[in-house]
Specification:
Metallo-beta-lactamase, Chain A; alpha/beta; homodimer; 2 domains
Chain lengths: 312, 312
């Protein structure tokens, strides 16, 4: 599980930062990549990475502001031309209006896609998606326009089968190891009955990644971020600008760091960096946030981070 | 009058070529820049040029395919943030549907612009726009979707006032030179009557620039291109692919060169170059076209050309 920042800017593209898009790479886990927001030029950014558009199976849109969605029709169209392989359905999750936006753009441009799109317009907070490996929860944030944050929860990994113990107890290897691993009861040829559950190590906690849209501080921020291994939080303003941040429905770097601290997250990534913060000034944003929460990283375009498991 | 190619690719953005956009810079003439097509990422390309978005006063859209329009909402939004100066109205000319596309995108993204947009959906061929310096004509091309080509005609420059002759004839300098220059009749203090028209040199021919959208060969191509100082023609396919070009409603480099030759244009610029033609292969497109029409240039992103006056 890796997170790759495709665009870390705010509002308009700048030379150093494109507008928002984040790729959550779940290739090892489920052979899928998920995109969070698709600002204009996201497909151009993808060209400079190893990401294959056909692997992108789900797109989550936090809100409909232009710097978060104007790259969507172009990305969807270009994805059609990628390789001869049959492309599976792509699911787009987002606030009400995302379907009209995409469908109007594709209809008027007469773009015919080689794959199906399923639209899930979010009307309720809570569980938005689940499969055998992941759950995604959505909750409302406080932006000028309807805006969501997403909490991606990896299901726990079952404990490893304690093969050494089984060998010590002279349990013959073979297909029954698979049953034990699944936690089932097994009768051995010599009459002994073993319960798989007794031979499994500690289950490993799945990871949690929280990706927020643009937002003012609001209780849902903390709820979504609780104990996340990685929290992606906007940082449109600097430490002395909390008033400005409030008026524009955004957050400061310090507010983000305080959330990270309170929610006891593993790592905080700051993004949605205004073009006013370039070079040393953007480093200062990071430095100031670290005085509150040490594990803070200011994300730059194309930065990629592995999401580590919790230590304990 | 200069033409700057902001995107010279076809279909999807590629590393070397962005999707279509062309800037016609009329800064000396009328202090305006006109854009022809606005593919996704056009605003990103503009960031790497000296073009000021607020100078862009008119946008002409050839057709609604995504690689020609998906950069429009983002460009329009970002233009709002450019400087404190009051921005004049921007006019968008294009096929039916362009207004719905832009308005839907701006409405759903809640983009509030600081300037007015006027939409001119083209329903008739012929004169589309004129002011004291320029006329723009539109005519239908033959693409899979409704598509237009544009012929931009600079009005002729009046002849220069022949000051040397006036001095030789002892005509006292002063405000009456202005009247003579405007071709008016003037009575001198000594009673002589002069007709300005007799003291004007040859008028200078205005320039003609023809910018075509994607198209198969069709009679309007030649009509629009006739005697243009510069012709911008798509070249999606190479010399041995006229069948493919026909099936996909596009043209080859050789077809473009033949038009340039028949229409007796000054210069031919090839654009809309497929990503299949990179490096030497794209140079071959140019080389092959030059066997038919010598003054051919294959345009690359950011190439800028001055449009010269006709020689005679
Ligand atoms: Zn926003
Ligand atoms: Zn086209």
């Amino acid at each position: 599980m890796e997170i790759e920042f495709l665009g870390t800017g705010a509002g308009s593209p700048a030379k150093a930062r494109n507008v928002t898009s984040i790729a959550l790479k779940l290739l090892e886990e489920i052979n899928e990549i998920w995109l969070f927001d698709v600002g204009e030029g996201t497909q151009h950014q993808i060209l400079r990475t190893t990401i294959k558009p056909r692997k992108i199976a789900r797109i989550f849109i936090t809100h409909l502001h232009g710097d978060h969605i104007f790259g969507l029709p172009g990305f969807l169209s270009s994805r059609s031309f990628q390789g001869a392989e049959k492309l599976g359905q792509l699911v787009i999750y987002g606030p009400k209006g995302i379907q009209e936006y995409v469908q109007t753009s594709l209809r008027l441009s007469q773009s015919k896609l080689t794959y199906k799109i399923k639209y899930v317009e979010i009307d309720e907070e809570g569980l938005l998606f689940e499969n055998s490996k992941f759950q995604v929860f959505a909750a409302r944030l406080d932006h000028r326009i309807e805006c969501f944050g997403f909490r991606i929860v990896e299901r726990d990994y079952p404990g490893e089968l304690q093969v050494d113990r089984l060998r010590a107890e002279k349990v013959p290897s073979g297909p029954l190891y698979g049953k034990l691993k699944a936690g089932e009861k097994v009768v051995l040829p010599d009459g002994r009955t073993l319960n798989g559950k007794d031979y499994l190590g500690q289950p490993k906690r799945g990871r949690i990644v929280t990706i927020l849209g643009d937002t003012r501080q609001t209780p849902n921020v903390l709820a979504l971020a609780q104990h996340a291994n990685a929290l992606v939080h906007e940082s449109t303003f600097g430490k002395d600008e909390s008033q400005l941040a409030f008026s524009y429905y955004h957050s400061t770097n310090i507010q983000a760091a305080k959330v990270a601290q309170k929610a006891q997250v593993g790592k905080l990534f700051l993004t949605h960096i205004s073009a006013r913060y370039v070079g040393l000034k953007s480093l200062q944003l990071e430095k100031d946030a670290r005085t509150v929460f040490k594990q803070t990283t200011l994300a730059n375009d194309f930065d990629t981070f592995f999401i580590p498991f919790s230590r304990k």
